[in-house]
Design goal:
This protein has about 160 residues and is an alpha/beta fold. The protein has helices at about 10-25, 40-55, 95, 100-105, 145-150, and strands at about 1-10, 30-35, 70-75, 80-85, 110, 125-130, 135-140.
Length: about 160
Amino acid sequence: MDDLSLFLPDAAATDALGRTLSERLAPGDTVLLTGELGAGKSHLARAVIQTRMARHGGVEDVPSPTYTLVQTYRIGEIEMIHADLYRLGDPSELVELGLDEAISGPAICLIEWPDRLDHAPADALRITLLPEGDGRRATLDGPRRLTDGIKALTHA
């Protein structure tokens, strides 16, 4: 595991992080997105998903799963799952949503508000987004194969 801190001055920098991350994620990877409301978790997840879509022939709208809790995308041979657990009432609901199986399966999972999980994969990439000036600070903690490729974006 390796830590990396990036200053993201604007939405374009967040998109760049999402594009870079999307290129490095593999089936079975889980990304845990933490931060306050409005920190950019959904924005980053959207950039990751849309980058993968663009590589496979098209981009569609990627809404925040705030009310549905889970959105699933089939992109080529890969299933991507975007979950927003902010409104999760009880961790046992994860079983009903199928998220527990998805996390342990071959899908790429992007999970907002992961503190609502009973347990998270030990090898997950954890990204914390915090406001900093007019931008945000992204702190990444996870497998070196993911963080090393992102170091080129370091602005701090």
